[in-house]
Specification:
The protein has 283 residues and is an alpha/beta fold. It has 9 helices and 12 strands. InterPro entries: PRTase-like, PRTase_dom, Pur/Pyrimidine_PRTase, PuR_N, PurR_Bsub, WH-like_DNA-bd_sf, WH_DNA-bd_sf.
Amino acid sequence: MKIRRSDRLIDMTNFLLDHPRELVALPFFVKRYGSAKSSISEDLVIIKRAFKAQGLGVVRTLPGAAGGVEYLPGISEPLARDFLELMAEKMADSNRLLPGGYLYLSDLLGTPNYLKIIGRLIAAQYSEEKVDAVMTVATKGIPIAQSTANYLGVPFVVARRDPKITEGATVSVNYVSGSSDRVQKMELSKRSLSDGANVVIVDDFMKGGGTIHGMHDLIKEFNAHLVGITVFAETAFSGKRAVQDYTSLLEVTEINTQTDQILVQPGNYLEKLQLITTAENAD
């Protein structure tokens, strides 16, 4: 049965959003909607224009017998800036301060609307990269990894500090916590990553970077490759960080436990986003 264009546009948009970075042959849509290939091509031009205008990412069409259409998740700089400023304002609330100078983040990372945008922000960095998995460490990094993996259309894997019998055989590494100088252990199921996999590391909070460095060492044990590192928030650190090349959505510049003052600003994400956009325009 032939479907009206308005209904077709809605369904096609939803399909592309649900299948990011997946190359879909045009005959699939022709058969799905009972429409001519020329009509599907016209629909894609409309969707492509709308996605670009709304800062949702790129709809790319590839010609030829092996071609088709794919959706690459993205976000415009104004939308990213507005969201990061909102998150910075919410994180600066003095009620978030916990004993020991820690910050309460569970409400932000547990809000679906916030989490979806966080995942989209991170995925936008790597939409053009070959990524096979998103990796994090239990526990607060899990929702970020899941959201990011959803937008990249890949699995997410979780390194754990305590063994789980349901994980089967594991690979483990010892690492030094950058903030406490304590030697700790993390492990990952042998079935989690394939040999030569390309991995993005994400985490909720970074101080000394020891945990992220440990995840990087764990990736090497699988003969896998690190594509990039992104954290939700980083905080000021007086020593030398264990990792240098990373992206942060937010930067906590000061935590004053005496005055309960928390100073937060957008991290280096916007700078990295500009570099990516400039490179894409140059291509």
